[in-house]
User: Which sequence fits this backbone?
């Protein structure tokens, strides 16, 4: 029995020594088709670690590709914005150049041609337009509602020489003053279908102690207004024009702000003073 035991122990030791002397297969980091745990000599844990590493590498590669695509998209959008900004700038420069050319044009001759030499009304629209307007205003008054017919009231305010009077004269179609405003000028236009020819009245003037209204024609209107505009005063010059070919509206042409306001802080006070003329 002892000899058998020694013999059996020697066989087991020889077998263990032989197995130990064999070189193990080195693990591979990448798997190929047909690889298995047995062929690679890897344990399941090692295989799981390799698979996780492969998935992380694929995720990193996908993230890099998405980042590159996003960067290209942002660059394209920025390029489009830059091109649009350049087009907008070119259009703005063109508009500014056209505006400067228009401002430099001499329109004195064209404006003077609008001033009638005789007692003829300036009518930019067909007679039927004013007739319809008159019927509409009479109809709204006849409704007897709480809301009265609202008459447009416009105040022109700005520095002296900015073109307030020129704009008003272009709208009205005749010349008002030959010199800059020294007083506010209130122009009341009234649609009166009974006036085939314009009825022009310059109201009494407290600043010049003129107690009566004065009726004038187109030819004498400018000189009459110049006479009343010869002094500095906050009292307005009030002009009433009634005619068939007109809409009902009120325009107030004010003197240049710097004439009565030496500082910017005084401008709001001047504006409130001129706007208050609408309620006078």
Assistant:
């Amino acid at each position: 029995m002892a000899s058998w035991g020694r013999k059996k122990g020697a066989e087991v030791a020889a077998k263990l020594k032989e197995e130990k002397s064999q070189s193990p297969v080195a693990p591979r980091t990448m798997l190929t088709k047909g690889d298995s745990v047995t062929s690679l000599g890897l344990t399941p844990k090692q295989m799981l670690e390799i698979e996780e590493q492969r998935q992380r590498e694929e995720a990193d590669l996908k993230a890099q590709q998405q980042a590159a695509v996003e960067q290209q998209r942002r660059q394209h959008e920025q390029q489009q914005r830059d091109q649009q900004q350049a087009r907008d700038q070119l259009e703005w420069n063109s508009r500014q150049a056209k505006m400067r050319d228009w401002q430099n044009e001499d329109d004195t001759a064209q404006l003077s041609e609008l001033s009638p030499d005789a007692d003829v009304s300036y009518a930019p629209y067909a007679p039927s337009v004013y007739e319809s307007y008159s019927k509409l205003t009479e109809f709204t008054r006849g409704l007897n509602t709480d809301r009265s017919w609202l008459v447009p009231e416009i105040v022109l305010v700005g520095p002296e020489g900015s073109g307030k009077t020129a704009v008003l004269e272009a709208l009205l179609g005749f010349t008002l003053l030959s010199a800059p405003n020294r007083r506010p000028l209130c122009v009341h236009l009234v649609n009166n279908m009974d006036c085939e020819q314009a009825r022009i009245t310059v109201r009494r003037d407290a600043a010049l102690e003129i107690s009566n209204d004065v009726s004038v024609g187109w030819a004498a209107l400018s000189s009459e207004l110049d006479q009343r505009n010869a002094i500095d005063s906050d009292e307005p010059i009030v002009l009433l024009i009634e005619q068939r070919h007109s809409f009902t509206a009120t325009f107030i042409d004010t003197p240049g702000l710097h004439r009565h306001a030496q500082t910017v802080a005084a401008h709001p006070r001047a504006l409130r003073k001129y706007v208050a003329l609408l309620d006078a």
Observations:
- The radius of gyration is 47 Å.
- DSSP finds nine helices and six strands in the chain.
